[in-house]
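== Item description ==
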Amino acid sequence: MTSTTDRCDIVVGIDPVKNWHLALAWAADEAHLRGVGLCLIVAVPPQHDTQHVDDTPRHLAQRQAGSEALRTALARVHARQPDIKVTSSLLDGFPAAALAALSNEADIIVLGSRHLSRTEEFLSAGSLVLPVTAQAHCPVVVVGDAEHITQETPHLVVGVDGSESSRAALAWAFEEADLRRCALRAIAVWQPPVFALHSGDTLFHAERRLLSETTAGWADKRPDVRLTHEVLIGSPVETLAGAAEHALAVVVGRKGRGGYTGMRVGSVVHGLLHRAHCPVITVPAR
């Protein structure tokens, strides 16, 4: 295995007990598009500290499984994108913490989705998606378990709500759309309040104005990207997931305007990670 002392442009977290093939394919294609290197990572948790049971056999078995998964992953990357530089590392440490640490230097972290229930998500030691998404300093891409194929014109969807992280998501989405030579659909979601001091029309038009102001100027910065923008009415999670049903990916800021102080992942991000069928790309505020 190679060292991770060199900078990793795109990091892929490999889970030896999970089917990680689609996440790896997405990452290899992205590295090819960007002309950057790819780092494959397996992190093995430390041995349990116990006086009654020898944990060494389990730990050694995990390391062996990790080494085998990395060898298989390397072979798949070379077969899919033979021209990109790829390295692999077997690290000691808790997987979520190890990947979050690598995000300090990486451009993108790519993970496969285990589709855990919300209870399993918080109780499972193997759950990576939520903690890495919450802690990473770079965009995190979560690729689902099914091949995403559509007959529609290739496009990305980006959620816009005026927050700092959604502005970062918009910038990232434009860059990605430019790389992929695809269209970009910017969407703001307005959920009518139960009680409001202003009329629904006033609030809806305010949302449209915010969307127009947020996307203004990008046509000059990225003239090759065909941009459309619209305000949709409904629940943010369900509306964005539905709008992205046939998209190449949905891009969102890590923390929106909702939620409470201290939340590391916005409720919309959390919901999309469970609901969306296409890859979900979460971008932290700059």
Confidence is low (pLDDT under 50) at residues 1-5, 119-126, 257-263. The CA atoms of residues 43 and 98 lie 7 Å apart.
